[in-house]
Design brief:
The complex is a heterodimer of chains A (about 230) and B (about 350). Chain A is mainly alpha-helical. Chain A folds into 2 domains: about 100 residues, Alpha-helical ferredoxin (Fumarate Reductase Iron-sulfur Protein, Chain B, domain 2), CATH 1.10.1060; about 120 residues, no CATH class. Chain A is about 60% helix and about 0% strand. The radius of gyration of chain A is 20 Å and the shape is globular. Chain A starts with a helix and ends with a helix. Chain B has 2 domains: about 130 residues, Glutathione S-transferase Yfyf (Class Pi), Chain A, domain 2, CATH 1.20.1050.140; about 180 residues, Rossmann fold (3-Layer(aba) Sandwich). Chain B starts with a helix and ends in a 30-residue tail after the last helix. The chains are: A mainly alpha (about 230), B alpha/beta (about 350). Chains A and B meet through helix 2, helix 4, helix 7, helix 8 and helix 10 of A and helix 2, helix 4, helix 5, helix 6 and helix 7 of B.
Chain lengths: ~230, ~350
Amino acid sequence: MMKDLYKELEKDVRYIEGLKSCFNCGVCTAICPAAEVSDYDPRVVVDTVQKRDESELEKLLKSDTIWMCGECLSCKTRCPRGNTPGYIIQALRALSIETGLFIESQQGRKQLAVKRTVGEHILKYGYCVFIDEVDTEMYPEQGPVWEWLRKNRASMLERLGTSYNKEQSGTLRNISQESLNDLKKIFDETGGTQRFEKIEKYSSVKAKELNIDFKEGKDDYFKHLYNE
Amino acid sequence: MKTRKNEIWAAYQKEIADDHYYFARSCIRQNFFPAAENLYINILRNDLGKDIFDDARQTTCTGIAYHSGIIPFETIMTVVARQFSLMNEAGYENFVASCVTSFGIYVEVMDTWKHFPETEQKTRYALKRATGKAFEIPKNLVHASDVIYKFRKEIAAKAKFRLINQNTGEPIKVVDHIGCHYAKIFPQEGIGGAEYPYVLAGLIDDWGGKQIDYPERRHCCGFGFRQYLLKSNRGYSVSNSKKKFDSMQPFKPDLIIANCPGCTFFLDRWQYVIAEMEGKTYGEDGYGIPVLTYEELAGLLLGYDPWDIGLQTHQVTVEPLLDKLGVVYDPEKKYKGRNGEDIGIPEKPQVLKCC
């Protein structure tokens, strides 16, 4: 069993802010969109962490449970005791990645696919989302209008007055190398780069264990996590 | 007539600067409604005579990554600090976030700095070491929809159209959808708070429409960050939107407006998906319910051409709404390219009726 998980968890300001004292009323679960569509119960999560049982915490960090929340934070509005289950989830997710326990759950493992899309877009484009990366194979719900827009983006995005592919202010502009460098240096300085490296390192171990090809980008392991 | 709800929202007001804004763009809006932000800037500059600075140097706030659990809080705090630093360098004090996720992030970060002062100090050191920059916290920080709310009466005075159905003379029935992170995290930061947000309802009231109050009005659109980003998890997202559509349909809305980029996108695209998967449509005669951003609606009422403000990039066809409003449009121009050239038209969905 891993030790001192609580010691680490209690350093996280999101945990300190998120957990005051829960009296198990269940209002958070009643309002929770994730609880409505999946086997997820924020009341139970909060009750589990406030018991301060190391083995229970370890189980939670290895579970799918902490990855079910949608971070809408409706729970923050409604908790009568000032708890924020959504913040506690943020701290649990961070600790699950730091300790490598995220690879022990199916949902946790999927963080690699999030890192390799949104995470890498940030450092490559300066945006979380960018039109060049959003095709209808990965995002079929985008539909035929998006397919048409994407195919004709050079023409249409100019017609609509954007700065697509241009080095100037405006919509969808190319973010300058200087700004991208700033982002990278901030990631290096604040643990963002290290978090990405940990996601890759632990994921490579799990991919090997599952005997799925692991390289980079949209490899077999990515496709397995993203689609299934 | 004043109601209890009027009193509740009236208790939640906030300061919204009168002029001189620093604009922070949205990742989602730039892609999926690519004309919306320029329209916002044009309305502020040309219709309202305001000064708004559009900085080429700003980047994503990284909020989608943060809420998906792949980057540390320290990282996003420092990216936010860089945005503030850019605002300072440009000589502005009033920060306007185009994205509701970003707005929530900025407020959350500033609130954290207030309650955990050591985190602000650490962020200052981190930003200095990484970029050499320093920063001051904005004097005023609001969401872009707050500014439209502030000037809603001025927009109404200049508008060429009102939210009146030209065929019946009745008010247009409008669903307002407020992004969760606008006021659910910090109710005091939203016009009307979390329970009765008035930031869009106020536009409907002053522009002549009728608000629809339906059971799931405050329910999340279902973005869920990592839940939508992963194809395997998207059932979460569409299920939550469907819950809202099913709840609003009996009230026969003519229009949905949203102040959050993600919500606008999901409420538009999931109607297409539900139609194709289940054969169910929510508008009249097989169409969907048009979904607009607040500035797209303002632009239409002010007389902007619907195809110049990008309404052809919505999956749900907007023509039924344009016809009700009496907006004159040229169907031939809808899908033309930059020089009026023919670039083809989108494929028609099998179920969802589109023009």
